[in-house]
């Protein structure tokens, strides 16, 4: 990455499901993606969880079990390398609930849509590590109530750490979006914020996203190829 020679010090990288696709984790909106197999309204809204918690919990049990069998790919590894070697500010804001950035070694990672291994108790508001499955549904380790939900952000809920994300974008010289369709707010608006604040903007994706015209530059290809090419 030749950024430093261009005066780039501070980088914000937004990642979406496409960065994990080559690890074998389903995206949401591509052909055969999760939203073709499950209705969003049935599994990814707070209303769905109230209506049919078992269906929602089964959906996340299935994803949690699957993610644990997957490995980081060259895109995660390249970003971890960049995180390790970049001495300016850097923040990987991921919309993904998987932990493949961390398992590749990245440290500066923020999960704006939550994490698949975390549980959130709706009775006492404490977060904990998720240990059970549907057959062994755990109670909250803090208060003992059977009130755990996946600690993920569903439609209609506020994504996590928005203040920290906007602060990082405000200071960014470069905003890079990797493998996200640009269909979901507020992440889809980050590139406009970055543009307004004077950062360079780059999209790395298999296909152009819905907000592609907002980026200064777009490079198309599989993340496992184009992310290492960009980083190295
Ligand atoms: C590759 C590749 C390869 C494939 N290499 N690339 C009407 C108008 C405007 C807004 C709204 C509206 N009605 C409702 C809203 C708001 C709503 C929203 O955006 N709805 C839209 C559907 C319109 N948003 C919300 O409710 C959010 N909250 C909110 O807005 O709060 C208010 C607020 C206001 C102001 C500031 C802050 C907050 C919450 C959204 C929560 C999204 N939750 C999910 C589930 C998370 C848990 C889980 O994982 O189960 O998050 S939905 C799902 O979509 C998931 C993802 O993180 C998110 C984005 O998906 P992503 O990552 O882009 O995946 P795909 O599949 O869409 O795209 C894959 C991409 O990869 C494609 O581009 C491929 O080309 C590419 N690709 N293979 C590189 N090999």
From TrEMBL:
NAD(+) binds at residues 16-35, 95-98, 179-181, 205-207, 223. The keyword Metal-binding applies. It catalyses: N(6)-succinyl-L-lysyl-[protein] + NAD(+) + H2O = 2''-O-succinyl-ADP-D-ribose + nicotinamide + L-lysyl-[protein]; N(6)-acetyl-L-lysyl-[protein] + NAD(+) + H2O = 2''-O-acetyl-ADP-D-ribose + nicotinamide + L-lysyl-[protein]. Its cofactor is Zn(2+). Substrate binds at residues 60, 63. The keyword Transmembrane does not apply. Zn(2+) binds at residues 121, 124, 140, 143. Binds 1 zinc ion per subunit. It is found in: Cytoplasm. GO terms for molecular function: histone deacetylase activity, NAD-dependent; NAD+ binding; protein-malonyllysine demalonylase activity; protein-succinyllysine desuccinylase activity; zinc ion binding. 2 residues (Tyr-60 and Arg-63) present in a large hydrophobic pocket are probably involved in substrate specificity. They are important for desuccinylation activity, but dispensable for deacetylation activity. NAD-dependent lysine deacetylase and desuccinylase that specifically removes acetyl and succinyl groups on target proteins. Modulates the activities of several proteins which are inactive in their acylated form. This is NAD-dependent protein deacylase. It comes from Croceicoccus naphthovorans.
């Amino acid at each position: 990455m030749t950024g430093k020679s261009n005066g780039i010090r501070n980088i914000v990288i937004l990642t979406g499901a496409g960065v994990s696709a080559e690890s074998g984790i389903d995206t949401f909106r591509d052909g055969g993606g999760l939203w073709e197999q499950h209705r969003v309204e049935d599994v990814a809204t707070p209303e769905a969880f109230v209506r049919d918690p078992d269906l929602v919990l089964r959906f996340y049990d299935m994803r949690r079990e699957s993610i644990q069998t997957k490995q980081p790919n060259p895109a995660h590894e390249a970003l971890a390398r960049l995180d390790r070697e970049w001495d300016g500010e850097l923040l990987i804001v991921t919309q993904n609930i998987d932990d493949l950035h961390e398992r590749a070694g990245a440290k500066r990672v923020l999960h704006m849509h939550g994490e698949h291994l975390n549980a959130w108790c709706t009775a006492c508001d404490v977060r904990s590590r998720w240990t059970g499955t549907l057959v062994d549904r755990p109670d909250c380790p803090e208060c003992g109530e059977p009130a755990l939900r996946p600690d993920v952000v569903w439609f209609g809920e506020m994504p996590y750490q928005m203040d920290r994300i906007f602060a990082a974008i405000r200071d960014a010289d470069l905003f890079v979006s990797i493998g996200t369709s640009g269909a979901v707010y507020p992440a889809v608006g980050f590139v406009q914020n970055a543009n307004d604040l004077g950062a360079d903007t780059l999209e790395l994706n298999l296909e152009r996203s819905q907000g592609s015209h907002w980026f200064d530059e777009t490079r198309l290809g599989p993340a496992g190829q184009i992310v290492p090419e960009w980083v190295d």
